[in-house]
Design brief:
Strand content: 5-15%
Pathway: Glycan biosynthesis; Cell wall biogenesis; peptidoglycan biosynthesis
Distance between the termini: 103 Å
Keywords: Carboxypeptidase, Cell membrane, Cell shape, Cell wall biogenesis/degradation, Glycosyltransferase, Hydrolase, Membrane, Multifunctional enzyme, Peptidoglycan synthesis, Protease, Transferase, Transmembrane, Transmembrane helix
CATH class of one domain: Mainly Alpha
CATH topology of one domain: Penicillin binding protein transpeptidase fold
GO molecular function, one term: penicillin binding
Protein name: Penicillin-binding protein 1A
Number of strands: 18
Subcellular location: Cell membrane
Structural class: alpha+beta
Strand order of the largest sheet: 2-1-3-13-14
CATH architecture of one domain: Orthogonal Bundle
């Protein structure tokens, strides 16, 4: 009987040993390979720059800017050592002394008041393990930590930790934390600021200085005390830092050029997917920061002036395109992106008389000259409904008889323009408009000559490049895109196609210059430089346009209401849209230099 009991005990012990050995084998076999840290890179924000180097925004899942460990100031590393793991530079990844000390304090306090996890263990947990509370996870955490310590230096480990840690308020990593909490680079942080950031990863919500300042300042001061005790800061630094106030509000990065940025984001997301939010791309946009600010101011001022005459809300949009490259230099899609994200640069609206230059360009192509005449008198054409006619009328019902083409376009004479379209063929006009880059559906009816077919501000403005240079240009939103190392992924070269010969271009510029000198856009003469363009107004003054250019920029402005109701009495293109255009075009030559 005794022999059987002894055999049973031995068998049970062997079973336990085997089970334990199997468990240990399973633990090691399921451990992630710490070699992967050699190629590890956390999610990083992609950054959008203006053409002159300003940061417009960041795209991210986790707001983070990766910082190499050797660029992190020594005092930042020491602050986190003091706050999280004072024996960091002495232990092999697992701190037995620290664990025993924490256990003693927990028993003495009757609750968990201090943990024993090292910085290396926290890094292992963040990178490799699920956030579950179990003995198995703690053992894996310890085993991984020892392996990490064998393979990497202490500075490499704390560098990875400082890039991976979450600091609250959507900030991941030390660089983003410095910007979020203090609006500055991590290299510019003061002692008190470093101590606050070092206090956060343990419990970002509990120590949030914006919501729980009383707790946050106590925690920060504990970190400062530890930094002083460890000799990381002097008595003078400690005294000064402990009296520093906490930050009052987070420094969120509010989009610059928001309508443009959102347009760019949609284009890049369609092309690059998740990479846009996690790979730390560098996007060099075409926006000129100063021109963008001027565009936003011009639109805001213009809407304010219209609201003095017309009931709110009136909206406006503006786009400025580089004539030589197609680069979009400024884009405003409405009065306030933060109230309405609807981008009117891409909305379909009737262009009114701003479409007329396509009619006159076809006439020149067909052999007409700016001084050839066309009859401006009441006229009727068969209507869409059988038995009914359509009679285009001039503004204020004034007619001028035989007029040269230059006068007909300058005064925006509807009757003369429709007659001209009828003679050259409206289908030819539609085909030419498409050739110039209009992609919206243009109906082959005579009313189209007066702008009855809906178009987008961006496409109509870009199409005017044909009148300015003879060349069709494609609007481009970014010049170059690189990875986080600066290696070019994509470059956007200008896409240019010659449409008109030089002699026709010269005649078109002559006609559009006449609009400014003696026609509906005479107010633009106040710019004191040669500019060209065309006003546009739809029935009942529901849409007001001005599209024009100088030798550098092609600029289109639209004004109207989102519900297509009239802006207000007499709010034509010359009164509602042209002043915004003029305001923007003032001093643009100096700003582009």
């Amino acid at each position: 009987m005794k022999t059987k009991i002894i055999y049973a005990i031995v068998f049970f012990i062997l079973f336990l040993i085997g089970a334990f050995a199997g468990y240990i084998y399973w633990l090691f076999s399921t451990l992630p390979d710490v070699k992967s840290l050699e190629s590890y890179r956390p999610y990083e924000s992609s950054i959008v720059y203006s053409s002159d180097g300003h940061v417009l925004t960041e795209f991210f899942y986790e707001r983070r800017k990766f910082v190499p460990y050797y660029e992190i100031p020594d005092l930042i590393k020491k602050a986190f050592v003091a706050a999280e793991d004072v024996r960091f530079y002495k232990h092999p990844g697992v701190d037995i002394i620290g664990i025993m000390r924490a256990l003693y304090k927990d028993i003495k306090a009757g609750s968990i008041v201090e943990g024993g996890s090292t910085i290396t263990q926290q890094l292992a947990k963040m990178l490799f393990l699920k956030p579950e509370k179990s003995i198995t996870r703690k053992i894996k955490e310890a085993l991984l930590s020892v392996q990490i310590e064998k393979r990497y230096t202490k500075d490499e480990i704390i560098g990875l930790y400082l890039n991976q840690a979450y600091f609250g308020n959507r900030a991941y990593g030390i660089a983003a934390a410095a910007e979020t909490y203090f609006g500055k680079s991590y290299k510019e942080l003061k002692v008190s600021e470093i101590a606050l950031l070092a206090a956060l990863p343990k419990a970002p919500s509990s120590f949030n200085p914006f919501k729980r300042p009383d707790i946050a300042i106590k925690r920060r001061n504990i970190v400062l005390q530890k930094m002083f005790e460890e000799g990381f800061i002097t008595k003078e630094q400690y005294t000064e830092a402990i009296n520093e106030p906490l930050p009052q509000h987070p420094h969120w990065r509010r989009f610059e050029a928001p309508y443009f940025v959102e347009t760019l984001r949609q284009e890049l997301e369609a092309k690059y997917g998740d990479r846009l939010y996690r790979d730390g791309l560098r996007i060099y946009s075409t926006i000129d920061y100063n021109l963008q600010k001027k565009a936003e101011e011009a639109v805001s001022k213009g809407i304010a002036e219209i609201h003095k005459r017309a009931k709110p809300p009136v909206q406006a949009a503006l786009i400025a395109i580089d004539l030589k490259t197609g680069y979009v230099r400024a884009l405003v899609g409405g009065s306030d992106f933060w109230e309405t994200q609807y981008n009117r640069v891409f909305s379909l609206r009737q262009p009114g008389s701003a479409f007329k230059p396509f009619v006159y360009a076809v006439a020149l192509i067909e052999g007409w000259s700016p001084d050839d005449t066309i009859l401006d008198a009441p006229v009727s054409f068969p209507g869409a409904v059988q038995g009914k006619s359509w009679s285009p009328r001039n503004y204020n019902n004034e007619y001028y008889g035989e007029v040269p083409l230059r006068k007909a376009i300058a005064l925006s004479l509807n009757s003369a323009t429709v007659r001209l379209a009828s003679q050259v063929g409206i289908k030819k006009v539609v085909e030419f408009a498409k050739e110039c880059g209009l992609t919206s559906k243009i109906h082959p009816y005579l009313s189209t000559a007066l702008g009855a077919s809906d178009v987008k501000l961006i496409e109509l403005t870009a199409a005017y490049s044909v009148f300015a240079t003879g060349k069709k240009i494609k609007p481009i939103f970014y010049e170059k895109l690189t990875d986080h190392n600066g290696v070019t992924i994509e470059e956007n070269k200008p896409e240019i196609e010659t449409i008109l010969p030089e002699e026709i271009v010269e005649q078109m510029r002559e006609l559009l210059r006449e609009v400014v000198l003696s026609g509906t856009a005479q107010r633009a003469k106040e710019l004191k430089k040669e500019v060209y363009g065309k006003t546009g107004t739809t029935n009942d003054f529901s849409d007001a346009w001005f599209v024009g250019f100088d030798d550098n920029l092609l600029v289109g402005v639209w004004v109207g209401r989102d519900n297509h109701k009239p802006i207000g009495p007499k709010e034509a293109g010359a009164r509602a849209a042209l002043p915004i255009w003029i305001d923007f075009m003032t001093d643009t030559v100096q700003m582009l230099k």
